[in-house]
Amino acid sequence: MTAAVADQPITVWPEKLSSVAIIGMGYVGLPTALGLHAGGVKIIGIDRDPRRLDTIRSGEADLIDADLRRLEKSLPQETFELTSDLSRLAEADAVMVCVPTPVDRYLMPDLTALEGACAALLDHARPGQTLILTSTSFVGTTQRLLVEPLTARGFTVGADIAVASSPERIDPGNVTHTQAETPRVVGGVTPSCARRAGEVIGVLTPAVHAVGSPEAAEMTKLYENSFRAVNIALANEFAEVCAGLSLDPIEVTEAAATKPYGFMKFSPGPGVGGHCIPCDPHYLLWQLRASRGTAPLLTQAMLSIAERPGQVVNRLLEELSLRGKGLAGTRVVLVGVTYKPGVQDVRSSSALEIIGQLTARGAHVEYFDPLADRLVLDDGTTAASISRPRGEDWDVALIHTAHPGHDYTWVTDCPVVVDATYRFDPVGAS
Question: Does the record carry Ribonucleoprotein as a key word (predicted)?
Answer without folding.
Answer: no
